Amino acid sequence: MIAMRPSTHLHARSAVLAAAFILLTAGPSHAGEWDVSGVADVEARVFPHAPSHPRQRGSTLSPSLSIAPEVIYEWNGRDDRFTFKPFARWDRDDPARTHVDVREASWLHLGNTWDTVVGVDKVFWGVTESRHLVDIINQTDGVENTDGEDKLGQSMLNANVERDWGTASIFILPGFRERTFAGEKGRYSGALPVDRDAATYDANAKERHVDLALRWRQTFDDLDIGIAHFHGTSREPRLIQTVKNGATVLVPHYDLIDQTGMDAQLTKDATLWKVEAITRSGHGKRFYAAVAGFEHTLYAIGDSHADLGLLAEYQYDGRSVSTAPSTSANDDVFVGARLTLNDEQDTSLLAGAVVDRSTRSTALSLEAERRLSDRFKLALEGRVLTNIDDRDALYAIRNDDVLIVRLSTYF
């Protein structure tokens, strides 16, 4: 049985209330259309090295199963839509990775020049490849992967207004989601276990604090730009070393922060110029961080149908290591390549490396996928850490190189 934390209970209640509201408002007199689909995965993680810490399971092969159905109900001429996307994973070796979440349970209503979203939803902000600084609405699902791309659902009331001067958005975010971490026996866990049950907060209301966010975005010819401000509980916890019941553990602490961010993308012929930048207070002294770079695409390489994208970005982060959550992306360079074959099987490959300019710590990544049929897709992911300095935030997982093989079936 999977135990539910207080924040998870609050999140689940928000999803149930959203679904109940839709059923009441849609009713028999507003007959609409249903669509049910989803994806189920069989995944195998292969760890070629022994773990760094003795309490971790040393399994070379670690299998898991996941399912992510999607239910959509549209009515009122498709001006109203209810979306329900649960997610569940079972993992053989890490009980913390066996979990259930409601990624989305939301009602979308479309007006002429405005729209609203009520319920549990996912929102993505950002344009850069190697790091998403401005993406702050949803909490990271830390047990799914190490790239930070997987997110937990977030309860929200969102309103968007579109005018000639741009699109303005407001987000009211009740109910905070704590970050998930690998369990004591799982890979990607550090030398000390994280005690999520002992998490502390700056906010007196703890996980019930209501966060707020505002965003404006606009397109000027070849330039897309967005500016946002967030006030609330940081999605990044500080991990504080604490002795509990005679054992040393890491306790997450969630600060109240204010973050103002900007993301922009300029399209010039075959080159995309990208930048994300933030300034944040609440983790000690105010700090600034940015990611900037480009992606240049070579079309129809070698007279084929394939396109090759060349990527390069620089990562800067000026946070204090003593008062802010740790990060490895403080003075790093990312280079990569994206190959798209444009074939019937939608074959693609993305390879990259992030190198710390001062320590030369290097994180290599590879992502490839190919559709096998209308229903099946095969994906490969590789993560390799090399030359990791003992001062780097990645040092705790330095032996956790991994090859992930994932077979997905769509229904």
Question: What's the layout of helices and strands?
Answer:
Layout: H1 6-26, E1 33-46, E2 61-75, E3 80-91, E4 99-110, E5 114-121, E6 154-163, E7 166-174, E8 200-201, E9 210-220, E10 223-233, E11 238-244, E12 247-254, E13 256-268, E14 271-281, E15 287-298, E16 307-317, E17 331-340, E18 348-356, E19 362-371, E20 376-386, E21 402-410
Parallel strand pairs: 8-12
Antiparallel strand pairs: 1-2, 1-21, 2-3, 3-4, 4-5, 5-6, 6-7, 7-9, 9-10, 10-13, 11-12, 13-14, 14-15, 15-16, 16-17, 17-18, 18-19, 19-20, 20-21
Short description:
With 411 residues, the protein is mainly beta. It has one helix at 6-26, and strands spanning 33-46, 61-75, 80-91, 99-110, 114-121, 154-163, 166-174, 200-201, 210-220, 223-233, 238-244, 247-254, 256-268, 271-281, 287-298, 307-317, 331-340, 348-356, 362-371, 376-386, 402-410.
Q: Any descriptors?
A:
411 residues, mainly beta, single chain, Porin, three-stranded mixed sheet
Description:
Helices cover 5% and strands 52% of the residues. By secondary structure, the protein is mainly beta. It has a single domain (6-410), classed as Porin. β3 (80-91) and β4 (99-110) form a beta hairpin. The longest helix has 21 residues, at 6-26. It is globular, with a radius of gyration of 22 Å. The two termini are 27 Å apart.
